[in-house]
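Work Package 3 (structural annotation) set out to generate three-dimensional models for the target panel prioritized at the project kickoff. During this period the team completed the workflow that converts sequence records into discrete structure tokens, so that structures can be stored uniformly alongside our sequence database. As a representative example, we reproduce one entry of 464 residues exactly as it appears in the project archive.
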Amino acid sequence: MKNGTRRYAAVLLLLAVAACNDFLTGDKLSSDPNQPQTANRYLLLNGVQAQQFTNLTGAAARAFGIFTQQFAGTDRQYGLLEVYAFTGDDYTSTFNGTYASGGLVDIRKIEDDARAAGDRIFLGVAQVWEAIDMGNAATLWGDIPYREAANASIANPHFDPEAQVYGDVQQLLDSAIANLTTNQGLGPQAYDLIYGASGSSTASVQKWVAAAHTLKARYYMHLAEKDPSNYAKAIAQANLGIMDPKNDFTTYQSTTPGEENLWWQFSVRDRDTYIRANATLVDLMKSRNDPRLPNYFAPNAKDSIVGSPPGGKEQSASTLSALRASPDFRQPLITAAENLLIRAEAKYQTGDATAINDLNTVRGFYGLPAIVATGPALLRAIAEEEYVALFQNIEVMALYSRTCYPNITPTDGGSNVPRRLYYGTDERNANPNTPASENLFNSTDKAGGTVNAAGSCLGQAAGG
């Protein structure tokens, strides 16, 4: 993968400079002066991977980690974020990066180039990236431009309903799976920073197909609470998804300047006082005797792993562990644990008693003993395992939205926590179709979130 990663490093270096400031500076990712206007699909893929790693592991992941109390904001802008004080300026670069360089525009160029070359494997890989990009955007913002986006003839695309976006993403993933399994073309090979080192193109394709099925299961679960027929669909897709942690879909990182893990860049190199462990997660893991705790967080100055109480902003709390705060740590994005826990949750909701087997399989991944549980206690155990397994992952907010786990006490004194982010300021200023009202706190504006009269998650479902 040497040639691919060398070119990747140059692209990621530019993105990394913006990533460590994305909560302050706005869009610095919309153009890449080092990327030729006529770059082919191989070079474009490097930029797409770099930008998507930024979107998936940068500012938005930190925000959702704070909102779901895996982390605590403890200083300056992140002290404000701890109590839900933020604006569209803070996530403008994330919104722009969803569409501009490294986003949907470049993904569509890759798809066109792959079609012209008859490389359907490459096309399938690009389509999976598009599904990740747009599915993640729907998770972050709800309604987003999609059907009219990345179209040079439409200056101000309309915003599509969140549920419609997920439906379009499902169709796209069906197309991706079909293309990946044609055996036509060579695919990205060494330029594939996810599975390109799998040893053979066949092994790489099989892993991409499994990841696509897990994504389908994920997005069916986003809609399942309001349309329970999606539980059976999620099970069917998870049956074909990632089953072995060795095949997890993870970011590419290294110690080469510009390729370092973004959590390391933010919490170690650039902003070491801004974010700490949250007591909600730390205390839960201690109560479970969870062996992952020292892999997640480091002992503090008193040689103890402790979390900051929600809203407490205590900088004496633990930081990320040496493992997780390593520049070359490959961040998990789509995993066997998520896949099996989706299946467990969906099985529970459809009355399948084998849900406990999937839960215990995941517990076994991490050295936890098998448990026996039924009824609401089983649902709570599944949601609890998902919450811990989705550490540092944007998907933890989707889990909270549908299960109300954990039972969070809002840090701002209100009745709920934010479920999404504000639209980027650039989009709001430039596109008159941007929704005028943004209700971040009411779960009824989420396509798949828990609904009650107050729009609150407190005391409901698995989180009660």
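The first strand starts at residue 71 and ends at 73.
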